[in-house]
Task: structure prediction
Amino acid sequence: MEKDPFGNLTDWGPVLDLLDELSENGTISKCQPGLIRILRYKGNWRLREEALKRVNKVENPCDGLVLQISNLLADDNLYYDARILAGNALVQLSKNTENGFPIELNKEIQKVIIKLQSTPHPPFFEYAVEKVHSNVIKQEVFEN
Result:
């Protein structure tokens, strides 16, 4: 895995171009530390959204990437569109791993889902949370 090819995130135009290029040529999986940094960066909503749209091409995502996306889903201070993109990304990343996420990672995501389901949200967001719940969480998590 490469360290981080994205450079200065305040100069976001080239970062968007690089995200496009890496996504199209199938090498975005090698840049997971950089994707995590983009997702943590609060200075540009467009970068975050574009990264969330492109992580679906990451094969065998690292735990840090999955946890960061889960954190975005749980972030009550983040607008719903980005949180829904995070939920969709979790569903797709789960499909991109051989047997879904490891049990420990599933337990962390389940904690987020339980927290989100315990408070009222608009129906469109509740639907997104349910989609993550039904497509990502392994049955073994419920049995333990």
Observations:
- Helices lie at 12-25, 32-40, 45-54, 63-74, 80-95, 103-117, 123-136, 139-143.
- The mean pLDDT is 92.
- The CA atoms of residues 53 and 126 lie 20 Å apart.
